[in-house]
């Protein structure tokens, strides 16, 4: 088996370069750049099916939900060799529902705060245009979610750090008992409740400027992609209308052809082509949905980026607080030692009023302060190291993410152009056919 | 009056005037061309000599073969009718163009230049150039209807436009109207009977039509008097004319539906265009916050803009070229229905008189009164004219719609061509960048 997990050879799965043909419609246009990690080198991961289940939930109420089948295949297992004339070994499979994916992701978020954790596909259908159902049980929605979940798993599996996580591995391989295992890690305790409060402003005095810029970019990207998806949905709606109205030509040409002699055949055939034209929009918009999903992934990624920025803020804040606390204690010590009160304190006040405390008391207090200061210095050193480590590891991941984003989105744009070209070609085909019918009238 | 050496049609020789059949004679053998059917070669580019529709001459049998020959010629030439392809049968060329606005104290109106080129002896000069306004065309049409009640008169574009709703002086409106007037005049000029009407002659040649306006009013009254005086009710319409009537009703209905569909498409396209424009600007603004992705995103914005422009062109074409022709045909159908009704009246009158005469007859030897015979002639003549006109109208209709629908298909193909080209050049741009990146990585 290949070496360590740290190496990351890039295997660009740029599936669109030769997809200018009509076959592109049949290929799943996976534009993900899969980096080869140790995990992916030994295992193939797929989310192949979705199924409806019914059961009782935590509050003992009947509910219907969807489960997804995760298939994993281990490479190079001696037992995998295909017997003569036989079929390849059956992959390992297990069923997971969306909430389990959510649990996994939350675990990853907490355990790797400096990593931009890949997002899950949306819980509820947003940015719908009229034809798509917003119902979670709608088969089209379920299908697109299946693709999204597979994408999520592949993203995690191809991440240089996340792919090594044991809990993730067990998510893929252990159906029962996984939930307990996750909870056992105690990750919930690590959750900083302050992060939950979105409005909490940490007055950070010296934030890393790169993070400030990144957060701003992330917010801008979030706004612009949201806008893009909203307008795209409206554009899809209108385009649907244009195509479908043409279908009426089909009917009227057919009726008209009934009263014509020489013109009849040409009109009738042309009418059929108009019907074809009207029907063609369904496939076209289905393909376009895939593009929308690719862009949507990055919309959700902006939340993950923002989260990392806030965690940095938090760690910086803690550092600054610790440093501030230390400075205060040092000042207190100085006052105690020199007797000069610089800062108003109740103790100082009462001392003045009720007389100085005894030498002994002062020395006890000084000793306590010394201790506290020493601890404080340790804390600051610790926090400082933590902060720096966070910045270092986070920024490494951010660079990786930026590269990934640029490549993926360019691929997405190319695939969008491919869909548009395909639409144009179909349009030309249909109208040319209709023209031929008209010329034979 | 012949210009150049006379060159008659192969099928007809030169005939003395006395032998030439009267246009309205009640025989199957329809008109022959006039004595001096000279070819006017050397088309004036400026006037645009082609008449819009093929001309039918002589009997129905040879008419259809002639038409086939003409049609073949039309098919050989791509879109426009070549003036040289079938000039042997045309000796009267008319064009309407050059709209100009006239402002007077009383009113503002548009006039059009009406140019004529002809070799017919009915005209004193070979060329004419006059200016006419819509009113004058209307006058001509009324005059033709009155003097040729048995024939189908082509329609004019709508007379009244709601002020405030439509701008009567906008370029598009004037352009559309002018094209329709041109078509009207060409159809009249191509008609074997109508083109010899003296009112057409006056319309094409007189410097000043104003004097005649007064008569227009009179003739209108006269027409209605004539209709009322008839008062006979038709018992049964012969089968073939019934079929015509039914056809016209259904056809009119279908055209109405097509009109509504086209309008709906225009509406949807317009709303699509609005969203598309905003869509393009979002990509542009996104490009502003990116580095590596800036050019690709701007590229997409550019493509969307190009497609928007192409769509605009398509929609404009539909509303300016497609819809007006469609609507004009609806008017044409109304005209045809009118002629059918008049035919019914004529038949009714004949049958009525015949019945009355039979009742009054003393015995079998008394001959039919002259007026009954005249009615019979009139009815038979009307039927013959109508049938001939119907055939001509049907084949013209076929040509017109072939051209119209083919044109619509062409415009759509054109639109998709433009869009495809834009997106393809974007892919080249994006993929070039990709290979650039890959080579720089491996280095």
From TrEMBL, chain B:
One of its GO terms (cellular component) is phagophore assembly site. Residues 31-60 are annotated as: Disordered. PROSITE patterns: PX (PS50195). Pfam families: PX. Residues 90-211 form the PX domain. The keyword Protein transport applies. GO terms for biological process: autophagy of mitochondrion; endocytic recycling; piecemeal microautophagy of the nucleus; protein transport; reticulophagy. InterPro entries: AH/BAR_dom_sf, PX_dom, PX_dom_sf. GO terms for molecular function: phosphatidylinositol binding. Keywords: Protein transport, Transport. SMART domains: PX (SM00312). The keyword Repeat does not apply. PANTHER family: SORTING NEXIN-30 (PTHR45949:SF1), SORTING NEXIN-4 (PTHR45949). Belongs to the sorting nexin family. This is Sorting nexin-30.
